[in-house]
Amino acid sequence: MLRLPLILFASALILLLSSCQKELDDTGGSSSVSGNFKAKIDGTWWVANKSALATRSFGFITLTGQSTDKKTLRILLADSGTHNYTVDPGSINTAIFIDSSSTNVGTFVSNLATVPGQVNITNIDTAAKTMSGTFSFKVHNQNDTTEKNFTEGSFTNIPYTNSLPIGGGGNDTLKAKISGTLWTAPTVFGLSANNQMVLTGVDIATSKQIELTFPSTITTGSYTFSFTGNTYIGVYIPDSDFTHLKVAVSGTLTILSYDIINKRIRGNFNFIASEPLNPLNTVLLTEGFFAITYN
Predict the structure, then answer these.
(1) Cβ atoms within 10 A of the Cβ of 197, count?
(2) Among 91, 141, 172, 175, which is disulfide-ready with 168 (CB 3.0 to 4.6 Å)?
(3) Computed over its alpha carbons, how large is the radius of gyration of the chain?
(4) Which residues contact 105 (CB under 8 A, 6 or more apart)?
(5) Is the per-residue pLDDT at 6 higher than 90?
(6) Nearest to 72 by CA among 44, 101, 45, 112
């Protein structure tokens, strides 16, 4: 229903936001963390002893903690400042836990959990650029239906930034005809991380956005958009109301060139997108084109 597209949008945005965070020196202990980011996972303490950073941009707060045992927690919140945020299905407020310590990487998301959770931001120091708070929630693995319970979570004086990477600058473009009218994104992002490529064109003033997500191992050729397949995904967001988010239900992604050395990708796309809660409310995107230098 609505929760799955929100997961994809939130996941991609978290990936994008966290890409601009510079990791701290890895000394293998909690002393390497600037501030403190920790929680109990199913009763066992986990500490972000590799990096603990945040961003505050585009109306979102993102907190990212990484540990030396290859576990990452990312929290995305619609920015309301110091506030007690509810993390539950149907909300853009999302927690994603990635466990890369084993061969089969486990990804857990709060939007599929059985109960809602909380993230309470208690302090934002705009002069020192730090934030503090507490959290507790459950995250769910859709592949094997297991859950992990985060309790006694806290982050203390986590440093944050307000900046994001902007790809290759003036040579980058992402555009398409939306219901027959050409739209060219004023701001373009490209990111390859965690085996995914995320290409985003956005108008910050209106929140209009087109986002394309696909495996970073992609090669030149044509591919079919399918939200249920969870591999080649197109998203269209017309405005700041996330209930208007539309997901590609059919269409084609064509990779024209993919230069891994220079991190440059070009392609075409077209798709029909519909609202998950109102499938009859559709929009047609045609003559899509992107040429992006990604991070």
Answers:
(1) 21
(2) 172
(3) 19
(4) 98, 99
(5) no
(6) 101
149 neighbors 115 (Cβ within 8 angstroms): no
Checking DSSP bridges between strand 147-161 and strand 51-57, what pairing results, if any? parallel
**pLDDT of 54 over the 80 cut:** yes
pLDDT of res. 288: 95
Q: Hey, what are 161's tokens? A: 């930034």
- Choose among 38, 59, 56, 60: nearest CA to 47: 38
Structure-token match 């920790």, residue found: 38
Nearest to 54 by CA among 155, 193, 195: 155
Q: What is the pLDDT of residue 177?
A: 96
C-alpha distance from residue 258 to each of 172, 184, 199, 236 (Å): 14, 21, 13, 23
At 153, list the tokens: 């979570």
Which of 202, 174, 183 has the alpha carbon at shortest distance from 269? 174
Higher pLDDT, 90 or 160: 160
- The pTM of this model reads 0.59
Is the pLDDT reported for residue 58 higher than 70? no
Query: How many whole angstroms from its chain centre is CA 61?
Result: 11
In terms of C-beta density within 10 A (0-12 exposed, 13-18 middle, 19 or more buried), how is residue 159 classed? middle
Counting every residue, how long is the chain?
295
* 179 vs 108: which has the higher pLDDT: 179
| pLDDT score of 17 more than 90 | no
205 half-sphere exposure, CB direction, 13 A CA radius:
2
Q: Is the pLDDT of residue 62 over 70?
A: yes
